[in-house]
Amino acid sequence: MRHPSTAAIRLADYRPADFVIDSVELDFSLNPTKTKVVARLALRRNPAGEAGAPLVLDGDDLTLIGVRLDGRALGPQDYAATPDKLTLAAVPDAPFVLEIETQVDPSANTQLSGLYRSGSAYCTQCEAEGFRRITYFLDRPDVLSVYTTRIEAEKSDAPILLSNGNPVESGDIDGGTRHYAIWRDPFPKPSYLFALVGGDLGVVRDAFKTMSGRLVDLAIYVEHGKEPRAGYAMDALKRSMRWDEEKFGREYDLDVFNIVAVSDFNMGAMENKGLNIFNDKYVLASPETATDGDYAGIEGVIAHEYFHNWTGNRITCRDWFQLCLKEGLTVFRDQEFSADMRSRAVERISDVRGLRLAQFPEDAGPLAHPVRPDVYQEINNFYTATVYEKGAEIIRALRTLIGEDDFRRGMDLYFERFDGAAATVEDFLSCFAEASGRDLSHFALWYSQAGTPLVTTSEEYDAAAKTFTLTLRQETPPTPGQSEKRPVVIPIALALFSENGQKLDLASEDASARELARGLIELDRPERVIRFRDIPSRPVASLLRGFSAPVRLEPAPASEDLERLLAHDDDPFNRWQAAQSLALRAIFARVNGDGAASDARGLTDALRLLLAKAEGDPAFAAQALSLPSEIDLAREKGSDVDPDVLFAARQSLRAEIGRALGEALETIHARFADPGAYAPDAASAGRRALRNVALDLIAAGDADKGRALAQAQFETAGNMTDRLAALATLAHLGGAAREDAFARFYAQYAGDALVIDKWFSLQATIPEEATTRRVQELMTHPEFSMSNPNRVRALISAFANANLTRFHALDGSGYDLLTRVVLELDPKNPQLSARLLSSLRSWRTLEARRRELVETRLKHILAAENLSADLRDIATRALG
Ligand code: PHE
Ligand code: ZN
């Protein structure tokens, strides 16, 4: 168990390690409860470290068996060992070899960090600080070593033995009942990238020929019998490898690339060098068991982990404060990959949706932190939407600012200059400064200043002078620990349209030629006023096109302008944004009880037009028809949030759209039925998405009609996407049809954990009073388990994050449920309990009664004994 420490870790305190570890030889004897680990470390003093310093190695919950220095066994007088630390006060100044033997119990490791078991397999998770749960080490990302790993096990227990790098040797021992394998990874790496797998697994194999003609053996290891479900992941892997060569000139560097899917995993997947370990949710798919969303998720995560080979592994992070250096950049790369594989516009829309759903609330609440934090208590709590998603947005904004060519040159420079190094954000930015010839020191503020900037605009048209004056102002609200904010560099892509939808030339004395030519205003100060000339009539401004920076923009244009943008804008993101803004306006008109009916007519008319042209881009139409979520509404409201009121207003608009567009929606639903065999490609997925959004709106407008259509679709669906969408619609309609469908769904997929997760989630998100009880009962279901993160997320995170009216119930029952689960989970898996508690990140925006309920629970949690450092950190900051 990690002991709660109160010492904050600060970026300002960084200093190089006192020792270098040139090579690591690891020797594992796998055993379910007593795994023996021998680590031979070739150490020497770091010239950049402190002369004469003692050797202090990190540990966590370790049992030390013995220590040898240059072959000589050390006695207790030579070192000080605790489960968390191994200190050698006096070590030679000349290079030396330290041999450490530890014993670990993988079966008792329920936190899924270090060496643990998933089913009958052995696997590891070492990021961020899991390696120290295997052996004593300088467990920090700037200590890079070459690893050789020998694994020995009972052949029956673990016929497959894998580690990083290339296979070197394998063979039988003990007359063939035991065996061993030796792996060597020639690329120096930090300990967090170490991995080992042992187990009885099925495998799918393929090969990839790299751009220089080398053949790489690819393998995906899965539970026996699941091999047919790994085909899409393999295909996505090969496409990722090709794409990174074509788009970034990056070639794979080992002889093998292995992926292992395990069912117990805290996160999505892990980029260990040459041996990616995955949550099986991001590997396994078949048309019968996976939705289009699952396929897209697999493609994105396979790509993400593969891309880490260069952005993360070949170039790693100097310290954990630089986490965004690998994560933000790799998310940016996987988003670009998905955009190239699918529809760029739809990818952009769904990435921004994701950002606004998770990162904006985080940035506006008590857990807000800079993309590069400067202090942490527990690094595990910084694998956040801010580091990942805002980190990716900053890189996108940088590319927008300096242009594609300079961006690509900067990336090339980065790969060239920092290959093999542990780098910082400054190192990264220096490459783009050099490539573009620009001073990026102001831009760098994006990394250290938290909070979402608010850009407010005002417009004025002077018909006599034919000028259009645009005023842009920025302000970033205070965040914890940062009360004063400075202006950041915000690239604002813009276009002006005439009344009939013509794009106007941009001419102004208030913007540079470069800005005007590119349609990109650089808002790098509190305010800019730009007067455009030769504007023949009042124009419609399309601002922040493509969501050119991670900011909030206010106010939304007038409704007639939004309708025009929805009809004419050639930026698909802003067309979608126009539909969202119209919907938001209609929903808040209901919340405030003003002019509801007339407000929605413009929207329904615009959507009707869109539906008529939906054939051209069904995926886009589906996105435009998807109303802002309850979380979007809460964020827009900003304070005094009553989830019940927002829910009711949203439902009422859905019903109105359903009624107004009933026939058009039915036509779409009928016409877009899957013609034949399921294909996971984006075009087919887009058709299904549109059809299923239509079904849901039909049901909102006419429950009986919706129920009949959904039941028929549930019966006849040839794939999980359509079947689950039908079940979701039935779930919201209620009644016997719902219970019947849930029962039949369960009967059909019982035992198929990833499918049963969908069944858990849908039940947890029914917006009815009985749901809290239902979730409690499901927690006793034989297929539910508190030890499996996917199960906990499917049931409990779904309830807390996607069922706002029930989670925020005024009797406190939703909060009580979360509190109980979090406290029960914490001793087992602190990373998971802490993440679960983060569902309360926006609690301060609630209205007073709910705020009080939450505050009591947070204090109750903090008062509990033996809280993990992870959970204590989140609860403390949440209370702030
Ligand atoms: N580095 C992983 C990724 O983003 C995420 C991860 C972090 C996995 C910590 C496990 C533990 O690709
Ligand atoms: Zn990552």
TrEMBL record:
GO-annotated molecular function: alanyl aminopeptidase activity
Keyword Translocase: no
Domain Aminopeptidase N-like N-terminal, residue spans: 100-193
InterPro entries listed in its UniProt record: Aminopeptidase_N-like_N, Aminopeptidase_N-like_N_sf, PepN_Ig-like_sf, Peptidase_M1, Peptidase_M1_dom, Peptidase_M1_pepN, Peptidase_M1_pepN_C, Peptidase_M1_pepN_C_sf
Entry EC no(s): 3.4.11.2
Limits of the Peptidase M1 membrane alanine aminopeptidase domain: 232-443
Entry's family note: Belongs to the peptidase M1 family.
Alphabetical list of NCBIfam families matching this protein: pepN_proteo
Protein name as annotated: Aminopeptidase N
Organism: Methylocystis borbori
Gene name, Swiss-Prot/TrEMBL: pepN
